[in-house]
Each structure stands twice: as structure tokens, then as C-alpha cells.
Amino acid sequence: MPDDSEHRGERGQPSADYRGQASADRLAVKLSELARHLREGAGVQETLDAIVRAGVDTIAGAEHAGVTVVRRRRTVETKASTDEVVREADRAQYETGQGPCLDAIYLERTVRVSDMSAERRWPAFVERARGLGVASMLSFQLYVHEDNLGALNLYAGRPDAFGDESEHVGLLFAAHAAVAMSGAQQEEHLSRAVAMRDLIGQAKGILMERHRLTADQAFTLLVSASQETNTRLADIARHLVHTGELAGRRIGQPLGDAARGEGT
């Protein structure tokens, strides 16, 4: 078989510590069940919460799990975790600017820490992690979407908690989790778009009824108010529906010929 050692640690590949071949026994069944379970999430946050819980249940050695999200490659945040120690350990990485999670995200690598007491790669982070009782870690890049990144991080309180089996299953798990997250994000974006369309429709209906405008005239008025006040169209519509005011004007006040589109 060809030697793939030069590619170790790259995206979708085992870490440099991987030495063996994990057993595939029952793995396909387990991952099939996992895929169905993750798709049961009702939204992005529910899916993330399901991912971290399933990570602990599925990946050998994992005691705690968390998902880190980086927006625009700058803002780093722990979006889901199974325990507070995950958030504390993640915060240590964010504040020191170093650690296995950040390497997994930015360097597109699978990163394994077998024994935190013997680790030399991230001294500032290691000191804080040991203080939190973290003895081993395993981090996978979860997804890359434009400037947004994600990582799955696994934690254990004992050394050498993660072996080749953990990495093998973890890589497949991360792939399933990324697909589930993408699906949840698309559904959430669609739901928001439908909700915004309905909200704008309500606002248009109010203007049409109160001022005898056509649908196009009402929409033009909403857009004008959005541009003049530098406010999102959805916020203009929401404010109108909830308060009866449009850009500081009571709905009962006359709009004038220009607002009606008359005289053109």
C-alpha cells in the first residue's frame, strides 16, 4: 500500500499520531443511525446540540464535546457543548490564540492531544487546560463555508483517551455532522425568508387598506422608508405592523402625491 504519511493531519485525513486501521465492524449501521438522529433537529441550534451529544455517545474516549464556529475568520464562539468545562477550555484557546481547536479550524487538520502533561505545542493553552482537568483532546475541522469555519472538539479527563478508532469514527462522524448542519442552516434560512415575506406582506396590506395604494405603491413606500432611514426593510415592516408607524409617520397621516406615485 502507498505510504500516506506525508498527508497526515491534512483536512479529512487522520492526525500525525494515527498509526493503525480502526475496525469497521458495525460502523456503517452506527453512522446510518447517527444520520437519522441528526436530521431530527428542528433548527441549527438543535442540530448542534444533537451533534455534541451524539459525539460523546459515538466516538470512543470522548467525555465531553463542543462545536466551535468562526465567523468571517475572526469571531470565535462555542455554539454548543455538553459541559461547562468545554466552554472554559475553548475560552482558554480563544484568549491565548493557540490550541488544537484553532489548528484544526485554520490549518484544516485533525489534531490529537494524547497527554496534555507532555504536550509542548501550545504552552499557554496547555497550562490552562491542565488546570481544568483536561488530559486529552481530539479536534476535527467540521466545515468551511465561505469565510465561516467550524470545528468539533472532544475532551477527556484521562491521558490517551483517544486512539485510532476514535479518529477513524470521528472523521466519518464529522462528515455526517457537517451535512446535517448544512441542511439545518438551509432550512432555517428558508424559514426566515418565508417569515420576512409574510411580514412585508402584512405591512403592504396595512398601507394598501389605509391609504388606498396598489401593492406596488405600498412596496415602493416601504423601500423608500428603508433607504431614507438606513433601516432594514424587514425592520421597517415589523415596526409598521407592531406600532402603526412608518418612518416616524402615523399611518393615518396623508402621504402626499409623491408617496402615492401620483402626478408622474
Secondary-structure map:
Blueprint lengths: L26 H12 L5 H15 L5 E8 L3 E7 L2 H13 L3 H7 L4 E3 L9 H9 L4 E10 L2 E9 L7 H48 L3 H15 L3 H11 L1 E2 L2 E2 L5 H5 L4
Antiparallel strand pairs: 1-2, 1-5, 3-4, 4-5, 6-7
Helix pairs in contact: 1-2, 1-6, 2-6, 3-5, 6-7, 6-8, 7-8
Written overview of the protein:
The structure is a single chain. The model is unreliable at 250-254 (pLDDT under 50). This protein has helices at 27-38, 44-58, 84-96, 100-106, 123-131, 164-211, 215-229, 233-243, 256-260, and strands at residues 64-71, 75-81, 111-113, 136-145, 148-156, 245-246, 249-250. It is an alpha+beta fold and 264 residues long. The chain is elongated, with a radius of gyration of 25 Å. The chain has a five-stranded antiparallel sheet, with helices on both faces. A two-stranded antiparallel sheet has the order 6-7. It has two domains: 7-17 and 25-186, GAF domain (Beta-Lactamase, 2-Layer Sandwich), CATH 3.30.450; 189-260, Arc Repressor Mutant, subunit A, CATH 1.10.10. The relative contact order is 0.12. Helix 2 (44-58) packs antiparallel against helix 6, helix 3 (84-96) packs antiparallel against helix 5 and helix 7 packs across helix 8. The longest helix has 48 residues, at 164-211. 51% of the residues lie in helices and 16% in strands. It comes from Nonomuraea corallina. Keywords: Kinase, Transcription, Transcription regulation, Transferase. It holds the Pfam family ANTAR. InterPro entries: ANTAR, CheY-like_superfamily, GAF, GAF-like_dom_sf, GAF_ANTAR, WH-like_DNA-bd_sf. This is GAF and ANTAR domain-containing protein.
